[in-house]
């Protein structure tokens, strides 16, 4: 029986984008036993990977002791393959027949392509999620019974500079789900990590009873189980955006000083809306003041709504359901 050590990111978004490569490994080596090391935050996303033998949440410790702990956990195994996306010493110091390491690409490319290049995979395998029954039961408890396809929004990010103003998220949601909107009558799920909950509060307050409050109430696996039921996701450049895209949800990602060519939502149902302010100008503002505000102000509501409408129009069966019964979104079956 072969064994594979897969070392991926501490960051949620990067970890999600590495799942395409991991999915390839589970298919190419269906009898292999997998050990996955990643950050504590994305760890729940990997708990149901086929062939998983061990999941090691790599909590950061002072003096890089987390790497020592990982080495001690892994050095006693003879690995058939080590895939190290962290380019760490651990990947070099454990016994292995074959090793591949993350390397800076010769040209800028999307992270999914960059990961696939490590094994020479073309086309690159798309990110995927292994959503388990426990997560779907949690989603059942969090989403009110009878809720049909809904709009999901992610108004926060791990850095304030990447957050589109909350009032614009609220107005966009009201526009898309209000009278004449593409998702007329739909509820709006608002997602944010626990520490970001208060920054999402203005969106929840503006939506009132229309909102489904998922802020601080889900781990990444439960968030995926909730998001796979959504009709559309609109959010900032964040891990939640990548979870939505990997779950197959039509996804609109909003980018100001970020890098959409590298971190845009992957797949045919992913779209990006970038600031009208040139990225170079935004990055210069960040360099001058890391706490600069208003970096996302150059993204117009009308443009986001236009892209969202166009993306929904590419899912005619969903739009037809809302058109047939626009005031009874709760009666619609979940989108699968």
UniProtKB/TrEMBL annotation:
It comes from Azospirillum lipoferum (strain 4B). One of its GO terms (molecular function) is ADP-heptose-lipopolysaccharide heptosyltransferase activity. Keywords: Glycosyltransferase, Plasmid, Transferase. The keyword Glycosyltransferase applies. Gene3D superfamilies: Glycogen Phosphorylase B. It holds the Pfam family Glyco_transf_9. GO terms for cellular component: cytosol. This is Glycosyl transferase, family 9. InterPro entries: Glyco_trans_9 (IPR002201), LPS_LOS_Heptosyltrfase (IPR051199). One of its GO terms (biological process) is lipopolysaccharide core region biosynthetic process. PANTHER family: TETRAACYLDISACCHARIDE 4'-KINASE-RELATED (PTHR30160).
